[in-house]
Structure formats: structure tokens, C-alpha cells
Amino acid sequence: AIERTISIIKPDAVAKDVIGQIYSRFENNGLKVIAAKMKQLSRAEAEGFYAVHKERPFFADLVAFMTSGPVMIQVLSGDNAVAKNRELMGATNPKEAAAGTIRADFAESIDANAVHGSDSLENAAIEIAYFFDDSEICPR
Ligand code: CMP
């Protein structure tokens, strides 16, 4: 089924100027960009986005990292988009990410891991609504 998911290119990958290379992977694998914005997240925005992780030991480092520079946030649309995006990203820890995945190729560490992607269709809807108004999304 056609699904929507959130992708965030994190500050490490924006700083490395690999936005275009990451977009090419989406476009070459059936994922269309239907909304996008570059944004410097405030601490409150990052804390709210990652609220499910607020009791985890890495939460403070995660928020500090996600606010360390601009991120590129996009809504992707395509067949099986949630799982497809996660397949393209690879494992959360780049040391465990399969060869040829975004994290294997562009990430340095579990914190600076280049991209975020929604982990379920339910969370995708929540995460899309967190960053985009309906009027900012261009179905096509
Ligand atoms: P992301 O998909 O953005 O979701 C939460 C982030 O927390 C994750 O990617 C990692 O960058 C970061 N993180 C740091 N340590 C861990 C950990 N032990 N387990 C999961 N995520 C972690």
C-alpha cells in the first residue's frame, strides 16, 4: 500500500553535504519527496519529537546532537514507505548497518547516525503532523 513516512537528515549528514546523495537513494528506490523543510530545531522541538525516549540514558545527548545544527526534514511517499525507508537507512548503529545503506555509507556513530525514519505507520502519522501542516504536503 502507498504509505507516508518521515525522514530526517541529521546535523552530521547536513554538515557533510550529502543531502543530495540521500535524496537520490529515496528517488531511486520509489520514495517520492512530497514535503520538505530545513530547520534548526529548538531544544523544546527536539525534546518533543523524541518524547518517547525521554527516560532513556541517551536522551540528553540525543537532544544536544539534534540541535547542534540544521536538519532536513521530509515526508516520503511510496509503496511500503515506512519499511522501505528503514531498509535504505540500515541499522541504528552504523557499525551494524548493512553495506550500501545510508548509515553504513554516511554515519559515524550511533548518535551521529545521519538519518531518522519513522518506525511504524502509526508513528509516521504522529511525526508528520509534528513538523508539517496538511497544507505543506504535496501529494503526487
Ligand atoms: P533515531 O532513529 O533518530 O531515534 C533515536 C536516536 O537515539 C537514534 O536514532 C540514535 O541516533 C540515538 N541513540 C543513541 N543511543 C541509542 C541507543 N542505545 N539505542 C537507540 N538509539 C540510540
What are the main properties of this structure?
140 residues; alpha+beta; 39% helix; globular; binds adenosine-3',5'-cyclic-monophosphate; metal ion binding; transferase; Nucleoside_diP_kinase
Structural write-up:
The protein has 140 residues and is α+β, with helices and mostly antiparallel strands. A four-stranded antiparallel sheet has the order 2-3-1-4, sandwiched between helices. The model has no long low-confidence stretch (mean pLDDT 98). It contains seven helices and four strands. It binds adenosine-3',5'-cyclic-monophosphate (CMP).
Topology:
Blueprint: E1 2-9, H1 11-15, H2 19-28, E2 32-39, H3 43-49, H4 59-66, E3 71-79, H5 81-89, H6 102-106, E4 115-117, H7 121-131
The chain binds adenosine-3',5'-cyclic-monophosphate.
Subunit structure: Homotetramer.
Binding site for ATP: 10, 58, 86, 92, 103, 113
EC number: 2.7.4.6
Brief synopsis:
It holds the Pfam family NDK. The chain has 7 helices and 4 strands. The protein is an alpha+beta fold and 140 residues long.
Radius of gyration: 14 Å
- Structure ligands: adenosine-3',5'-cyclic-monophosphate
Query: What portion of residues belong to β-strands?
Result: 15-25%
Summarize the biggest pleated sheet: 4 strands, antiparallel
Structural class by sheet pairing and helices:
alpha+beta
User: Helicity level, as a percent range?
Assistant: 25-40%
Alpha carbon gap, first and last residue: 15 Å
Shape call: globular
Characterize the quaternary organization of these chains. single chain
Instruction: Give me the strand/helix succession.
Output: EHHEHHEHHEH
Count of alpha/pi helices: 7
Number of strands: 4
User: Low-confidence parts lasting 5 or more residues at pLDDT below 50?
Assistant: none
Strand order of the largest sheet: 2-3-1-4
Mean pLDDT, rounded to whole units?
Answer: 98
